[in-house]
Queue: 3 jobs
Job 1
Amino acid sequence: MKDQIRQLVCQVQSYPRDTQERQQALGTLVKQILRSRKICRPSKGQPLSGIYRDILEAVQKQLTQDLEQTIDRYSPQFISDREWTSWRDMAFKKVIDNYRLEQLALEAQGQKTHTKERLYALTELINALQISGKLYHPPGFSIDVYQDAVIRTLGFVFQNINVYNPDKGKFMKWVNFRLYVMLQEVRKELNEPFIQSQYNKVFRTQSDLKRLIKKTKTETVLLWFQLILKGRITVIDQGWQVFYILIVLLKLSQLLTKKPI
């Protein structure tokens, strides 16, 4: 993937600005970068439509504009995976605003419970929330407290999306209020003597926890998601509990990738 990106960057840079050849090469580069996107991927056998297509088209346009302005600054041989994925993620972050997040939430609400369509919509929503940069992040909380609160908040949104009432307020206000509550709860729990003693016990067995998390690979969790979406795992009440656990494991594995233990 990295070699393909480098070759395409070289190709774009080889053409003069404002030429049809450069625009075509830039379009190919954008498509290649977006192949690894985390959201707005069509469900198997279904074309991308509605809010998902709207977001993807907006991201394609945004990424094209961003690269048009900056691509000549890069030396292709020094472009890392982290760099080109940051181009992709930044474009999504610019596009996924409060309005589009609310549309994703309403789309999830509109799907019947315990269906592949509902599961797909909720997965898209959870991933969009993480990418958007719209989650409340106040100062004064440790990274452990904040990450715990985010995981609980995402789990709450996943399980209680129908609780949200658009007539009573904006979606992100609802989400961030829940995150604020979770932050207070997590910090309070850690200050409780009993919880603190249990936390210390966990800390003393941290090496075991590290090994457990390291065995949880993002690819493995995503495979479970795909199996559920393809209907190879029956989505029943127990299945939804498993899916909630998968969300937690996915978040842990993503955090581990960013900050190895």
Job 2
Amino acid sequence: MADCILDQLKSQPSWLLLLLSLGLFSLLKFSLSTLKWIYVNFLRPGKNLKKYGSWALVTGPTDGIGKAFAFQLARKGLNLVLVGRNPNKLTEVSESIKSKFGSTQIKTVVVDFSGDLDDGVLRIKETIEGLDIGVLINNVGVSYPYARFFHEVDDKLLNDLIKVNVEGTTKVTQAVLPGMVKRKKGAIVNIGSGAAIVIPSDPLYSVYAATKAYVDQFSRCLYVEYKKSGIDVQCQVPLYVATKMASIKRSSFLVPSTDGYARAALRWIGYEPRCTPYWPHSLLWALVHSLPESVVDAWRLKFCLGIRKRGQLKDSRKNE
């Protein structure tokens, strides 16, 4: 049987054999990619985060993804340094975490990332002095109130986007990283966005998308710089999550709750330099990449123009 098949193959023209070889190679590559996707999303165990250190620092922990991260890290047995703008909300979140995880030690630092950032970072350094910060979650971020053309972005919004998303992430990392280097271990998670990575463009959110592109490249460079020092740096790329920032109230299969996202996110810490932890998002990512960029651009522009129209209508009603 095998000899018969071999004889038939030998009788075929070389171009057909070449096409067959390419087809088999593509099939093998697809099969291996599928098996890897199944493994990393459903079978691969999460790392023991306490091996990085007994403390985790989370920025933007009073709402949304950051708050969910804080609860999940406490569930894993880590103590917390919570960094946010509102002292009352920081106290509220701290008490809520302690009510569920009584042994968790929590320190809070009030920092207005759109204000005097240097003074805030100094307070962070003073607070973490002597603590083995093993995990850093750079979650704090701002976006547009709603979609708008670049010429409609006022100076305050422009400055806030750059200062919070770019400077905030950079300077908090700069404050925490030396301790990790000294201890030769640590994990840094920077929250990126599908707006900068998954889709080819995010019209009417241009500055937000650009700041998240910075976060992605910043993370990748640090991953390469510090991997041999025992420090795992990662940019996580969520798509839509049910948060106030995304103006989505209800979760669904494709739009996880903040808790659902954070649970998935913790399992990915310490692995790939870039990932989208919630597995249905990876399916959307693959779908987007299978389409021509011009098609995705046109769809996204139409979608964002609709958001802009609804936002302007809401503003006009407020001013009546």
Job 3
Amino acid sequence: MTHLHLTQKRIPGRPGTAGAAQRQLHRSSAGPPPATSTHQNLDSWGCRGHSISFSSWIGMENEFPDEVLKSVFPLLDGKDLVFCMLVCRQWREIAKDDYFWKCICSRKWPSICKQPPSDANYQKLYLTFSKPQKMHHLPMPRLTFDDLVFYIDMWLDGSLIFSQAVSGCTLRAGLQCAPRGIPDIIVSHLNSIDCILMLEVEPKLSIPMGPGITISVLAHRKDSNKMACIINESTFDYIDSNASRALAYEYLRFSPRHPFISDIRAWMSLLFLYKGSNVIEVFGLELDFCDAARSETEILWLLDMLDWK
């Protein structure tokens, strides 16, 4: 961006007095004045792209009496007052008065002005706690799916009908070939960006649908040689006919190091196709933690916090 600078040029043959000076505006490649710390913080306030160019500063200094600015500033909100501090030195010095920030804080948090903290700095208070919250990304988990083995057992009326030890990587790979005829809602789910832990049941199980199907899931982590219970003989007592799946769940048990984490469930879905009036053909099992974790990183952090023994 080019900026306008005001210079004086002496007219030949005339004395160099102010009245004899001819003002000229010329274009310069020089940048605007150095950014203040307030200016640098605009991005964190969601004000990207709203900077004030130097050409807008010309003539602003002392254009308004201090009394006018001091009457207007208490009526502004915090973001507007931040912008005012960028206009010129006069505005910035006046806007530093903590009285204006106290007016803003009294509207945002009325109770804090009734019994303010000792040595309260209202400008700092507002700028600290009114910034838009940034999205914090989880660090890489210590646990990986390579470290995990899942032991899945399923019973029908007390008789074992499925038993398999599955590596975490196999469960993460999901279905290699979805059968024809599965509902569109399952197809959409399989194509979602969520982390899906799914096991293909092969050969497929043909069983009567009823409340007698139960499942257990244990997990072993090879990095510490410890075990954790994820699901303990839970019953598939909810059937979603539209999605052709039955659901069982168990509340996870977390390590005593995380005493404030609770009420997070592990869900196991039984994926099937109808083969008769009361007969289903199971083609897959899905494990998920949709109460709290959907991405791969979130699931691994959640599993890492379990009560491993």
